[in-house]
Task: structure prediction
Amino acid sequence: MELNFDLAEDEFPIFMAETDEQLQVLDDGLIRLEREGEDMELLQALFRAAHTLKGTAGMIGHKRMVNLTHSMETALDCLRKHTLPVTTTLIDLCLEATDALRALREEVITRTESVVEVDLLTDRFSALVLAGGNPPTKEPPSKPAKPAAEVSASPGAQQKTGSVKGKKAGGYTIRVEISQNSIASAARAFQVMMELQGLGTIEQMAPTQEEIETSKPVHSMIVDLKTTKDESEILKAFETLSELEKVEILPLGSIETKATDEPKPVVQEVTVAPAVVPQSPPGRPTGASDSQANIAPKQSGGPVAVEKTVRTSVERLDNLMNLVGELITDRNRLYQIRGTLESSIRNSNQLDVLSDTITHVGRITDQLQMEVMGIRMLPVSNTFNKFPRMVRDLSAKLNKKIDLTIEGENTELDRSVIEEINDPLIHLIRNSVDHGIETAEERLKAGKPERAQIKLTARHEQGRIILTVEDDGKGIDPQKIRAVAVGKGVISEADANALHDDEAINLIFSSGFSTARVVNDVSGRGVGLDIVRNNIQRLNGTVMVETEMGEGTRFMVTLPLTLAIVPTLLVQIGTNTLAIPLVTVLETLRISINDIQTVNSKPVIRLRDKVLQLLEMGEAFGYKSMRDEQDFRYVVVVGMGKQQMGLAVDRLLGQEEVVVKSLGTIIGEVSGITSAAILGDGSVILIVDVQDLFQISSQKTAGNKKENAA
Result:
C-alpha cells in the first residue's frame, strides 16, 4: 500500500534537510552524552532535536515517526529531570531509534512502509523509563507547522524603552518578528515557543499555541515569560533558530498580548546583509555552519549585521563553476596575446591601454574564481560527523575500547572533493579499529591505557588540505607485510627482501592484500586500502603512512582544494607539453648530463644527502626528447607519500591553473595520464598521473633486473 503524506513538492527538500540535520544532532549528541555523562546543555539540545523531529513528522502526518520520536523524547526528558541515569543500554536504544528514524525518513521518499518495528521500540522505551523511575507526564503528539527554508538572521541586543504598563518581577515580555519571506512562518513560531518553554513558564502568548498549530502565517509573536534566566540566556536560546528579523526583550507586562493594535516600542532593528552559501547535495545532512548565522548578543546598543543564507541547487553551482573555468581559459589566452604583442610592438599607447585592461580582467577573473570556489566550499564536518557513531559500533562489535577525537572539522573543502573522500576515510578508520588497535587486555599488558585513541584531523597547508587518521595501536610490522605479500603472490620473495621498510609498508595498498586471518563484516577481503589508494589517486592526491611498532600508525592524505581547477607545472618534452599537478611537485632542478649516474641499471641523481631515482618523461610516454641535443636536463622532483622521484624534461614552461577535462569513456584510462586540459591558445594538453609514473618506474626497474639476470 502506498503511503501518503501531507507534503508539497517544493517542501520536500526542506523537510529532508531539516530531518537530516536533527538526526545528525542526535547521533553526535548521544555519543557525546555516553562519553561525557549528564550535561544539561547537551541534554537540552538532544531533547529539542527529538521534539523538532516529532513536530516535523506530525506536520506531514507521519504517525509512526511521531510515535517513535515521542518515546525517545520522553526518555530524554527523564534524563533532564534526573529520573533516569545515562547508561549504555539507554544510549544503545536511542541510537537504534535514530537508525529507525532514518528508515522512516526513507518512507517519505519511497512512499512504501519500511520493516521498522516502531511498536517494539516504543515498548522498550516505556519499559526502560518505568524501570528507571517515574516517567514524566506525556504530552500528546502535536501537529506543528511545516518547516521553513534555512534563512538565518540574528537577534541583537535590545533597548528597553517605550511605553511600559508596569514591571512585574521574575520575567519578561518578549516580542519576536519572523521574516515576511518565510514560506512556513508558523513552524518558526512553534520553535520559538518551544525554546521559551525550556526557559520558564509561558503565562500568555499571542497567537496561542492552538492558533500556531493551524499552520496559518505568523509574523509577530508576543510572549509573557516567567523565568529566572537573564536576557543573555534568552538570546542564546535563539541561536539555533533562523528567519528571525527582530527580537525585543522588555519588562514583563510591557505589551498587552491580546491587544489588537500593533505596539510600537522603540527597539533595535536587526540589519540583514544578504549572502549566498552552498547547498548541500540532496540526501546529505546540512550542518549548522552552512545554514545558520552565528548568534551572539552585543554589549552595545548599535545595530548588528548578520548574514542571510539562501539555498540554491547544486546543478547551478556546478554550471557556475564550469563557466568560471571557461573564463579562466580565456584569461590565460589574453595573457598569451598580451605577451606576443608586447614582444613585437614597442611604445604604443593603445597597447598599454589593452595591457591594463587585460590585467584588470585577469584580476576580476581571479576574484570571481575565489568567490565561486568559496560558495562551493563546505566544512568537512559534513563527512566527519558520521565517524563517532561508526567507531562506537565497531569497537563494541570487536570488544575494544576506543575513543575518537576530531580536530579541524570546520576546515572547508570543495563539495566535489568532500563527496569523494568519504569512502577512503571510512576504510582508514575501519583499518585502525580492526588492525591497528589492540584489545583492552593486550593494551594493559603492553603498559598502555585501556582505552585506545584514534585521532581524525583536517587542516589547510600551502593551498592543499591534509587529512590524518592516527591511532596509538600496535603499529605495522614491515616483516609481516613482506611475508603476507609473498604468500598472496603480490611480490616475489627476492623482491620483498630487497624492499626498504617504508616500501614494504606501502604494499598494504596492493589489490587483494590483507593481514586478517578471518574474513568478517569489518575487514579481511583485501579491498579497503586498495580503494583508499585508487580514490585518492583519482583526486590527484597522495597518501603517506608513518608507523612505529608498539606506538601506532598515522595515515596522511594530501588533497587539492578543488577538482575543477588545478594548479600545475607545465613542462615540455620535444614538441609536446604536459601538466604536472603542483600538489605533487617538491622542487625543480637544472642538472648537467654528467650528474646522471646509474645504480642497478636505473638512472639516478644525487640530491643533497640522498640518491634520487630519475625517470625520462620522453621514454615513459614515447615522446621524442631533446636530451641528445642538450648537455643539461631539467628535473622536476615529485613526491607521493614518502616516495620521491625525479622527472627529466626538456623545458620548464611555468605554473598555470588549468581547467580539468575528463578523457571520457571513448578514450578510457591511459597509463600515466589522469585527465586533460585546454590552454589559452586552444591547444589540448595531458595532465600527468604521478602515482602511475612511480609504478611505471618500478616496472622498468624490475625489467632491467630481469635482463641483467638473463
Summary: The two ends are 73 Å apart (CA to CA). The mean pLDDT is 78. The first helix runs from residue 12 to 36.
